[in-house]
């Protein structure tokens, strides 16, 4: 224990026992006066004083040590007090007993409320998870109906239906990322397979918006979670498609396992660039779009943190944006 900390505890100990200290001083003054008035020999007084002071010093050292131990015990319990309140040190005084009982009652009440909130949160997650899975059925049925006839109106409706499906899956991803249960399966995957899955899913959007896609197949293999890497890539491609009225989207993979998605869209304002991964932040482009949620890139960042994937962004307004995923193997941040 540091000297500064010991000094602080000593001040608190003396403050807590100041009445006893003043009582000892007062009694010493009274006995000293009586001995002086009755001409008691100095040697006898000095001998008794030395014995008394020595005894008091020894006892106070022991009491101070116990005082420090109890304080240390309380500090160890403090970080998890909502669960460890039952392990508080036993009381030595009536006041400590009263305070201990108050803390015990308060801790029990907080623990019950905490358990109730956790149960409610778990029930909400289960409800929304079931809802997202159930909503996929009518979406699939509507897609089949709209695909029966290839008209301009049906193509527009299919595009909006695709957006609904995106938002439903985004909600499910949000629930899974916020859950304490691990939803990650780490294996070695062929990166080309994952990229082609994302391209196939967004192919109708490329065609509808008449965007040119540039991609050369790769043989790079990565150690990752396929589902969540695909989710990150799809969100980045979705933004590229959304904010590229016309032009090209280029997907590249380098030998050092860096995956980039570059577009020739409207770009990101310099003042918005540092905040694009914040929850709910839509920026200037999102406010103009009126349909941005500010959740997609935030979920990308959270998933990337779990997989320890670095995300870098470069953008110039009117020129385009480039998102780069660093897929080099690192230690995963998965509980």
Helix percentage: 55-70%
CATH homology superfamily of the largest domain: Histidine kinase-like ATPase, C-terminal domain
Poorly predicted ranges: none
Helices and strands, in order, run as: HHHHHHEHEEHEEHHEE
Total domain units: 3
Largest sheet: 5 strands, mixed
Strand line-up in the sheet with most strands: 2-4-5-7-6
Q: Indicate the CATH architecture of the largest domain.
A: 2-Layer Sandwich
| CA-based gyration radius | 35 Å
Q: Please tally the β strands and state the result.
A: 7
Shape: elongated
Question: The CATH topology of the largest domain is what?
Answer: Heat Shock Protein 90
What is the mean pLDDT? 84
Derived structural class: alpha+beta
Instruction: Quote the beta fraction.
Output: 5-15%
Question: Could you give the topology of this structure?
Answer:
Elements: H1 3-16, H2 18-37, H3 42-77, H4 81-84, H5 94-147, H6 152-178, E1 187-190, H7 191-209, E2 211-215, E3 221-224, H8 226-242, E4 247-253, E5 258-263, H9 283-289, H10 296-307, E6 310-316, E7 320-326
Parallel strand pairs: 2-4
Antiparallel strand pairs: 1-3, 4-5, 5-7, 6-7
Helix pairs in contact: 5-6, 6-10, 7-8, 8-10
């Amino acid at each position: 224990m540091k000297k500064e900390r010991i000094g602080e505890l000593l001040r608190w100990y003396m403050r807590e026992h100041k009445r006893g200290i003043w009582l000892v001083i007062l009694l010493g003054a009274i006995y000293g006066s009586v001995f002086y008035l009755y001409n008691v020999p100095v040697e006898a007084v000095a001998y008794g004083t030395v014995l008394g002071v020595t005894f008091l010093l020894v006892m106070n050292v022991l009491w101070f040590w116990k005082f420090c131990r109890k304080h240390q015990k309380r500090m160890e319990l403090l970080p998890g007090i909502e669960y460890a309140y039952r392990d508080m040190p036993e009381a030595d005084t009536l006041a400590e007993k009263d305070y201990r009982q108050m803390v015990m009652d308060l801790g029990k009440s907080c623990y019950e409320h905490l358990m109730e909130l956790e149960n409610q949160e778990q029930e909400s997650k289960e409800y929304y998870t079931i809802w997202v899975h159930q909503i996929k059925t009518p979406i699939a049925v509507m897609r089949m109906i709209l695909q029966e006839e290839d008209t301009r109106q049906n193509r527009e409706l299919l595009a909006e239906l695709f957006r609904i499906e995106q938002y439903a899956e985004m909600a499910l991803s949000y629930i899974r990322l916020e859950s304490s249960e691990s939803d990650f399966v780490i294996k070695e995957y062929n990166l080309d397979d994952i990229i082609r899955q994302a391209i196939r899913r967004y192919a109708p959007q490329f065609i509808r918006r008449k965007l040119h896609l540039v991609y050369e197949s790769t043989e790079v293999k990565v150690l990752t979670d396929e589902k969540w890497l695909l989710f990150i890539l799809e969100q980045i491609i979705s933004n590229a498609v959304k904010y590229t009225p016309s032009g090209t989207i280029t997907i590249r993979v380098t030998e050092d396992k860096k995956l980039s998605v570059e577009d020739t869209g409207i770009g990101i304002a310099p003042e918005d660039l540092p905040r694009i991964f914040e929850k709910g932040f839509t920026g200037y482009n999102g406010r103009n779009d009126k349909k941005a949620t500010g959740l997609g890139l935030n979920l990308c960042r959270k998933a990337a943190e779990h997989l320890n994937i670095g995300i870098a962004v470069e953008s110039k307004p009117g020129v385009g944006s480039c998102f780069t995923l660093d897929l080099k193997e690192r230690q995963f941040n998965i509980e």
